[in-house]
Amino acid sequence: MTTASSVLIIGGASDIGRATALIYAGHGWKVTLAGRNLAECGRIADDIAVRSGQRPDVVELDVLRTDRFTAFVEAFPEAPDTIVCAAGLLGDQARDQCDPNRAAVTLRSNFEGPALLLGAFASAMAARGHGVIVGISSVAGERGRASNYVYGAAKAGFSAFLSGLRHSLVRQGVCVITVKPGFVRTKMTAQMTLPRGLTAEPAEVARAIFKADQAKRPGSLYVRPVWRPIMTIIRMLPEPVFLRMRL
Question: What's the CATH code of the domain at 209?
């Protein structure tokens, strides 16, 4: 009897987490949803069970409680085949830049917590000799902008961490993938006016993640290819020109 592949989705109550769980469950994977809100994760698991015939397991996890990471990792008899980190917090730039405590939550939710947790699982995967780690970062981390530089700084740090982790593990059989979705239509962006051609749906991001997992090619992935030339131009703008722009 063949054992089903397993995936742990961190941030399982998020829109992207939910869509990703559904696509993996639909392909027969054993899915575990991890999140702070166990009740919401449970409702999502019930919905996925109806849609796919596979009910995910649900576990409690707060990425800000780094003191609990060791116990969380050790609770798994074996590291999952794939880990998808969809945890994150958009924050509010106007408030974050005036309140160090709020800024700290944004920075830790998007960088410190996810990085430390993935690093802990990476050790187990490397010892085993295989595994896939998918971290959802952001195009916001490619160049600091006035409109979201606290969030962008956190995502820049997370992207750099994933890049280093990828370089560290590539010869040990562990594939690390950085996903940059661009704008995504979720609860987190519900109050924003989003450009149609640049905005993905959660299901679109989930399909890109699953496809990248199956291909097992380490590297960075833009969910919509149009973001690659856009971000290349933004990164290459001379600083005097960039500082005159409203972004």
Answer: 3.40.50.720
Active-site residue, from 24, 149, 151, 222 = 151
Mean pLDDT of each 10-residue bin along the chain, 247 residues long: 85 96 97 96 97 96 97 95 96 95 97 98 95 97 95 98 97 97 85 84 97 96 96 96 91
Question: φ and ψ at 245, to 5 degrees?
Answer: -90, 155
d(CA 87, CA 21): 13
Tokens of 239: 């600083």
DSSP one-letter code for 60? E
Q: Is residue 247 part of a domain?
A: no
Count the domains in the chain.
1
Q: How far apart are CA 28 and CA 23, in angstroms?
A: 9
How would DSSP label each residue in 133-160? EEEE--GGGSS--TTSHHHHHHHHHHHH
Domain hosting residue 129, numbered range: 6-242
Class of residue 125 by CB neighbours under 10 A (exposed 0-12, middle 13-18, buried 19+): buried
Cβ count near 226 (within 10 Å): 12
Say which amino acid occupies 64. Answer: L
Known active-site residue 24: no
- Ramachandran category for residue 5: left, alpha or beta (phi over 0 → left; psi -120 to 50 → alpha): beta
